[in-house]
Amino acid sequence: MIKYKRILLKLSGESLMGDAGYGIDSQRLNEYAKQIIELAEAGTQVGIVIGGGNIFRGLSGVTSGFDRVKGDQMGMLATVINSLALQSALTNLGAKAIVYTASRMEPIGELYIRDKVVKSLEKGKIAILSGGTGNPYFTTDTASALRAVEIGAEIFLKGTRVDGVYTADPEKDKSATKFKEISFNEVIQRELNVMDLTAFTMCKENNLPIYVFDMNKVGNLLKVVNGENIGTLVS
Known about the structure:
The protein is of the alpha/beta class. It has a single domain (6-234), classed as Carbamate kinase. The protein is 38% helix and 19% strand. It contains eight helices and eleven strands. Strands 4-3-5-2-1-6-10-11-9 form a nine-stranded mixed sheet, with helices on both faces. A two-stranded antiparallel ribbon has the order 7-8. The chain is globular, with a radius of gyration of 17 Å. The mean pLDDT is 94.
């Protein structure tokens, strides 16, 4: 029995690189697509937001001399590229997936309209929500939180390369310990880096739980939706 009827899955752009170091690794992309299809076939309605860091990050562009607004717009376009790649992978495997864009850019994708997305989800289609919020100065984490609240997702699934929230960065501090559950307030008090503060506050204020887990381990996504405790629940 699935635990969640409707979820918002946030994937990082960097994770799509696999071992390539840049761009999109086809093996990693197809692994993700297969896991997402498993989830949809189990009966969960799936909304997805993907970052664009494997192609371009707005803040890194600023350090290279780009205007912040232009840099963020370039980053938003990078998320559209990743979204189209995921849509292609899902479609090739027989799934029905639609790319929605925060800014108008037909025929690349349909303009994001909340009610239209919800109807698509109810019909069993996978909705890939690209282009961030359509505004500069907001991260894809914030876009994910916003879209999750808008579409009525029961939980925000943050797929990362780390298997949960730790007392410190486990890749730097071998003594770091993992939380199975932690409250929003404790995350703030401990200054843990779950996601950017704007996104985190939106989830907190709307009582939207966050589940952080390792997306790169095949099969984990379905385990999360089946209620297995393999990551960290923030609520």
